[in-house]
Amino acid sequence: PVFALQAWTPENTIAQLQQYVDEKGLVFETAAPQPDETPPTLMQNPPGLAGGQDLVSFYTTPRYWLWDPSMIVFFSFALFFAMIFADAGYSASLGLIVAAFWKKMGQTDAGRRFRILLTTLVSAGVIYGVIVGSYFGISPGEDSLPAKLKIIDMMNFNLMMQLSILLGVFHLVVANAVTAWHFRRSIRAAVPLAWVFIFLGAVALWQATSHGEKLAFLQPYGIGTMGVGLVGVVLFNSTEGPLWKRLLKGFGGLTGLSNAFRDALSYLRLFALGLASASLASTFNGMAGQVKEALPGIGLFFALLIALLGHTLNFVLSLSSGFIHGLRLNFIEFFRWSISE
Length: 341
Known about the structure:
Low-confidence stretches: none
């Protein structure tokens, strides 16, 4: 009997297949995927960063012809999680939980990847908690070492709002820049590159207007950069059909400005949720202190109980917010500008 088998295979298995067919005396041919074909997607990352592909595939698997965002999602999720957790004490507590289940998670490949991801989250959370000076909702004393390590004041609302939006814009710029690089041999790279110019120009213009004379010199650069980006969207949003149709679709593409504005502002949740976590921790500490003073003796027990229950509740809420919103900013905002298909 004569038969033929056609199948997809990863490129790094071709040598093994060739050895097999040589031993069996079979005919073996290989061919690269054609543009009109849709091969299955295989994401392969270094073992230490493979947790990123688990996060990505939890939501969706990118098409074969797109790019693998796993490594970017790995690090951006860790940063967003840390900003939402916003407490070195809570992060250290999460580290103790990870340590307790470390051996059990090491029994499977998925568990080993997950524990590395959790370790990264704990490390980022501790570092950020030290930077903002929050330890179970308690700020360090002025002359202490933790106080000297405090760089960012979370109660400076203007600073935190600007930091969150700037981080969001950088995240969206990376999404468009990597997409443009992926399509660098095609005219398809022009549109994401144009959006990079729009985002950067808008940030320069915003900083110029919000910082007065200090950054006023950025205003013409911001306007010019945005202008180049807008022209790029109009000219290259559509590349098929007569010129008037392409221009009409190009002007239609400018409706993406509202999406860009909305997505950038969406990163304010990093500031809002981090502030909520810190405020709740401080509130429970205050409640415990009031009970201790109001009930001498027995009040200490109730104060400890309030602190324990309050911080446990806040820890769970912060943990949930960190995972949900940290992933949401990658799955919704980042993917919208990078692997929207």
